[in-house]
């Protein structure tokens, strides 16, 4: 059983019962698994400022990299909970939509699907993000059609609690791949299919250009791509903070993973989450939410500024996949630059 995110979901549910004296005015309305609260405009953005991903496009940065280069050798900008630009203050992790992220150079995405009524609405925890897996497939396909030299790593995760289904999660995924008229032709063209005898290793770039590579974070009878947190991955995802005072501790985890990626096995895909949030209801109510962890708050240097300083101080060496909340143009550009001769 995949238990990632259980603490966050429990905290979100618990917030409904917080007293009115909580520091953030939270009002909960649970409809189609959505919680309605405030917006990120209610919180200080700290020293890293707002989102600027649309300011410096990098839609073809993989084009000049040799086909023989393994994906494990690359430094790859990514976004955590990619579709959560539509979320509330508890769940929002992005300010830019998926097409903007892709055009900016993001090549690793994090897609969370709830299995509900034999479909895949997109969720962050218990919160519905007002979009569907079909929307994701369409947007990825449009991008890859225009930029066939690129490849997209897509963590595909079963999120929240399944409900009102007549089939398994895997059967619904296969429906999207083989039967759904809105996605089957697109996935036939753009989804990477592991070859016969596939051993779960991370493929070379030339094998997957123009394709979506599933990083499989769900149970199934077959392999759809490299297993998330499997033998060929090394993942840092210490996302639970008791308060904003724990941001330096989170940064220590991030920094150690950067060091591991620099010197680690060439056959391992290192994944480093910059993202974190409070999971205790009181911590969240007091402002420990994704936007303040990422961008900082008065007296707190956020993870984005710390990361930018780290990448600028030594602009060489592999970073692996860098999964960020609210990634900036500077960070995306600094990660991409490490792949260039």
How would you describe the overall organization of this protein?
This protein is 29% helix and 15% strand. It is an alpha/beta fold and 341 residues long. The strands form four sheets. The protein has a four-stranded parallel sheet, covered by helices on one side. Strands 2-5-6 form a three-stranded parallel sheet, with helices on one face.
Spell out the key features of this protein.
single chain, 341 residues, alpha/beta, four-stranded parallel beta sheet, three-stranded parallel beta sheet, 11 helices, globular, disordered N terminus
The strands making up the biggest β-sheet line up spatially as 1-11-9-7
The backbone outline, from C-alpha atoms, is: globular
**Spatial extent as radius of gyration:** 19 Å
Regarding quaternary structure, what we see is single chain
Average pLDDT, to the nearest integer?
A: 88
Give the topology string: H per helix, E per strand: HEHEEEHEHHHEEEHEEHHHEH
Question: In summary, what is this structure?
Answer:
This protein has 341 residues and is of the alpha/beta class.
SSE layout and pairing:
Blueprint: H1 6-15, E1 76-79, H2 98-104, E2 108-113, E3 121-124, E4 127-132, H3 133-146, E5 152-158, H4 169-178, H5 184-190, H6 205-208, E6 212-217, E7 233-236, E8 240-241, H7 247-263, E9 269-273, E10 277-278, H8 281-285, H9 290-295, H10 303-313, E11 321-324, H11 329-337
Parallel strand pairs: 1-11, 2-5, 5-6, 7-9, 8-10, 9-11
Antiparallel strand pairs: 3-4
